[in-house]
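User: For a teaching handout, I'd like to show students what a predicted protein-ligand complex looks like in token form. I'll give you the sequence and the SMILES for flavin-adenine dinucleotide. Please answer with just the structure.
Assistant: Understood, here is the input followed by the structure.
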Amino acid sequence: MKARWPDTYVEVVALGPLVAIPALEDLLRLGADKATLLSDPAFAGSDSLVRTRILAEYLRGVSFDCILAGAQTADGADAEVPPHLADLLALPQVSNIIRVDEASLVEGWPLVDVDEGRLQATYRIPLPAVLSLKHHHAQVLPHVSLRDSRADVGDRLHVIDNDQLGLPAHEVGTQGSLTQVVEVLDPPVRQREPRFVRCNAEGIEQVHAFLQSRGLITHTTAFSPSHVQGEQVVLVGRRPKDPPGDIRDAEILISGGGGVAGSFDELQKLAAVMGGRVTASRRAVDLGVAARAIQVGQSGRTVSPRLYIALGIDGAGQHIEGLRNIESIISVNTNRHAPICSISDIVVEGHAREFIERLCRRINEGTTAALEPH
Ligand SMILES: Cc1cc2nc3c(=O)[nH]c(=O)nc-3n(C[C@H](O)[C@H](O)[C@H](O)COP(=O)(O)OP(=O)(O)OC[C@H]3O[C@@H](n4cnc5c(N)ncnc54)[C@H](O)[C@@H]3O)c2cc1C
């Protein structure tokens, strides 16, 4: 953005211990004009409400057009902070943003695309506002060039402690926090115990309920206050989400193998209603029904979607090798003993084509109303 509009002034504001300084220096070397670190031993142990108050206290004294915030911190997840910050600063706010139209941002009335599950909405927001962006692993900052890596940026870095902010000591840190971290544990390794269902109305209902419980199909969340705050925020439109360009960026993969080679194109229907991408086993690629670029496995791509639906895929070791850290797996197979079934959360025993037709119909039942702008 600085390259296109060099007059834009960017200040990076962080809250944390002094170890954050090298990261802020790198952001200055990448083009930010100023970096401010709010740091004081008294802030240690602050919960997210107190962290938001500290940030708000600093920001009240700063003039800005727009606050761009993230959903995650360097060491955790703090998606509740931006909406609460907007409350404290009495600003409009939109979260779960996947794209900000830079030209309209510069004009002062930005258009933003918001991820609403299967749908994508566009909002227009009056400035000043808080725009909260959703984490996306493809959106990574470039590295600092070797030439810039030694640039002295110390004069643009400011550390502000609580003496300067002036918050009462009993309102910050563990003293001021209503919630405290008691213990931090590694998540347990999840054992999958497949649930077997048939490809009938009852089985599809169970699949649908499973997808909803994991937040993998949401008919609409657009008017939830956690997404949008502020009466002047205008809903411009809502449409099915754009499919991601690369299968590795997709949150939902609909994958087909030898068992669906005769009807591979049908997979696209399910991908469209679920906002996912179609992928394939090597058998489907070798049979000429799928492109090599969408092959999953040892000699294809390694993927980590939130949901992997394997249709007519047996689950050979070379295929499974391409599946990493997948939250949920559903397999549809005429053979309940196929190896893929043992690593699935739900196994639908039946024909893939029938499953696609039934699940598409079930999902579509809840969608029509959500597409209408209110
Ligand atoms: C060096 C090497 C590298 C490889 N790399 C890869 C790789 O990257 N990716 C990869 O996928 N494979 C790879 N393979 C191939 C792998 O070994 C398997 O041959 C391949 O994965 C099989 O694909 P499949 O499960 O889709 O097909 P199949 O083995 O033909 O299995 C079809 C499945 O569909 C089921 N079925 C049949 N009809 C239906 C229906 N109507 N509805 C529902 N289910 C049905 C069947 O019960 C069966 O489980 C590699 C092999 C080698 C030797």
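For the handout, you might add this sentence: Residues 303 and 323 are 5 Å apart (CA to CA).
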